[in-house]
Amino acid sequence: MLDVVIVGAGIAGLSAAVSLRRAGHRVRIFERSALNNELGAAIHVPPNAARVLEAWGLDPVAMRLVTVRGISLGEGSSRRELNFTPMGDWVRSKYGKPFYFSHRVDLHDALRTMAVKPDGIGIPAEICLGQEVVSYDPDEPSVTLANGDIAKANVVIAADGLHSVAVKHVLGRANPPQPEKLYNGCFRFLIPAEDIQADPATEWWVDNSDGLLRLFTNGKTSNRLVTYPCRDKATEIKQWPLLYRAPIPTWRKGRLVLAGDAAHPMLPHQGQGGAQGIEDGAVLGLAFYGATPEQVEQRLEVYEKTRRNRASAIQVLSSAGQDQVDMIHEEAAKYVQNVPKTPQEFSQFNWGHDIVSETLKHLRELDPSFHLPDGFFEGDPYLP
């Protein structure tokens, strides 16, 4: 059994906690906030993430996930639908799970519950709230808290977000997100459904819209209005910066490793930010199943080998729309041999990848006898 410290209780950090708990390790999470104001509205849960979550026992009905029926592209001034892409049945048929929408708070709460609940596989994780990590020692490994306390472990997983402190300790230099000044962003706002229905100019937005994502364009600029069903009642408008860091050459140093936005922050064009954090968590649990303290760095190599090129490719591909892939093809080709070019190729690359089989392949290169026990996944949807 390993002692694991995770920094950050966001989607990636909690996913790692769930997975490492299921792998039989003792997990402590240090989170600087009180976890009482998780931000966000809808978040994509595409098939590659849904497979992981349901393999951990998440119930999509209990979590109120909404199956995406399709994407509608319309012209706002005329109400004319320019294109409709159905996604319901064919996504489930081809990739084994639907494409879901979740309320971000619901997803976060579900992951937190799976990490800390007293019943279930493994030892419940411990979440230490209001504990800010200000420094890392990759070799000890340990973290230093703002109050001066030092927490030691066998491995430290830094899921400390876009403005990661840990990335400096991994790279030996600062790596701030870009742009430093806000010139790339979006305006987020939520309008009560009854207000939209009361206005003849907008009532059609919500007609038969459950599970439907709508995009409105004026055809002249890159500006888009995106709408989706949401139960929140807030009405304020917030400016939300879209920040980016280019892929980095390594995610690890010693027994410190990055996960989630600390490793691969990405823009929203592929809708894969949260899903890639969930994939990180899944691979960490697999890579460390049965690991001893002496094997930590070896297993971290498996994690990085499985995750870095894939996440870096999606990070680059998320920098532009699918109709702009020529702008980033050269950069993406550094991380993936066949860069997707069509919507079908993007879907297959994003949603069809089997991270479990890939991780097991790398683990069996180290130890041909490596295997997962029966019941490691609930329903064993992945096991070959």
UniProtKB/TrEMBL annotation:
InterPro entries in UniProt: FAD-bd (IPR002938), FAD-dep_Monooxygenase_BioMet (IPR050493), FAD/NAD-bd_sf (IPR036188)
What SUPFAM superfamilies is this protein classified in?
Answer: FAD/NAD(P)-binding domain
Report the Gene3D superfamilies cross-referenced here. FAD/NAD(P)-binding domain
Task: Tell me the domain of life.
Answer: Eukaryota
Tell me the ranges covered by the FAD-binding domain, including all copies. Answer: 2-170, 231-314
GO molecular-function term, one example from the UniProt record? FAD binding
What Pfam families does this protein map onto?
A: FAD_binding_3
The UniProt keywords, alphabetically, are: FAD, Flavoprotein, Monooxygenase, Oxidoreductase
UniProt keyword annotation of Oxidoreductase present: yes
Instruction: Reply yes or no: does the keyword Flavoprotein apply.
Output: yes
Q: Which family does it belong to?
A: Belongs to the paxM FAD-dependent monooxygenase family.
- Could you tell me which PANTHER family the record lists for this protein? FAD-BINDING DOMAIN-CONTAINING PROTEIN-RELATED, MONOOXYGENASE
User: Protein name, please?
Assistant: FAD-binding domain-containing protein
